[in-house]
Amino acid sequence: MSATRGISLDGGFPSLAGATGWLNSQPLTPAGLRGKVVLVDFWTYTCINWLRTEPYVRAWSQAYRDDGLVVVGVHTPEFSFEHEIDRVRQATQERGIEYPVALDNDYAVWSAFDNHYWPALYLLDREGIIRDHHFGEGRYEQSESLIQALLGVEREPVSVEGRGVEAEADWDHLGSPETYLGYARAEHFASADAIRFDERSAYELPERLLPNHWALAGEWTIERERLVLDEAGGSIAYRFRARDAHLVLSPGTRGPIPFQVLLDGEAPGPSHGVDIDSDGNGLLEEGRLYQLVREHDTVGERTLEIVFAQPGVEAYVFTFG
């Protein structure tokens, strides 16, 4: 989605003063950025849609900084564990982010821009006027063309190829939606047992899962933004259709937690994601997005099950690509 060129919010560059901290830079201000073309990128490090756009933002920052472009990342956390500065710092390092990042734990910058999405790009001219914005993935050539126009340069677009979790989705075969697990936004829960909110309960997997439905086995507490495993051996299952399957997980206050992924009841073999081996073994060490499946052949409907060896696991959202 794109805004009409030439619009502004509140007549100029929205305030950055509400940032709770900065990475890679001293605090920036609209006045200090005057005379620069500025690309503001709202992100949160577990968001698969942002991860797939980040190679482009990173490449634009490197390709056009000598021409007067400043990229400002604004990390506005979606989940509670994403407020921790050390985790955000680690994510910036892992993604090779060298441009300034505002930490927006209080959603002050988000509110100043009246933003509602991850990822969201806002392009401002040298006078601090918002000339364009775009929500979500895609439209990369048009965004780069607008950057060039505001900078007064003309050249071939940068060459970008995302790798690992940053790789572009297989849109032609993507048949499963982002699926939140906390009760505030959960859909298509398929365990036969009556769902209970904010209390420990036992669940069982159904004999068969319908497409894009999910279920639990074992002792779990279903909370507003997440599931919490209360007893070792619990599992989550999802019937999906996509090349890639991801799950945002956190070990909470526990140490590393081993887990195993099964595809249609068997080890994933060559279909394993970057965070597990071919036998399906993985280790939950930190809160982030884990890639569990990457198909290399024909994409079909599969049942994914993740079995956790210890309690304390927190599960937030499935995403696909």
The helical percent reads 10-25%
Biggest beta sheet summary:
11 strands, antiparallel
What is the number of E strands?
17
Output the CATH homologous superfamily of the largest domain.
Galactose-binding domain-like
Task: Report, as a whole number of angstroms, the end-to-end distance.
Answer: 20 Å
H/I helix tally:
5
Number of domains: 2
Q: What is the H/E string?
A: EHEHEHEHEEHEEEEEEEEEEE
Which secondary structure elements does this structure contain, and how are they paired or packed?
Layout: E1 21-23, H1 30-33, E2 37-43, H2 48-64, E3 69-75, H3 85-94, E4 101-103, H4 108-112, E5 120-124, E6 130-135, H5 140-151, E7 179-180, E8 200-203, E9 214-222, E10 227-229, E11 235-241, E12 244-250, E13 257-263, E14 281-284, E15 288-294, E16 301-308, E17 314-320
Parallel strand pairs: 2-3, 3-4
Antiparallel strand pairs: 1-4, 2-5, 5-6, 7-17, 8-9, 9-10, 9-11, 10-17, 11-16, 12-15, 12-17, 13-14, 13-16
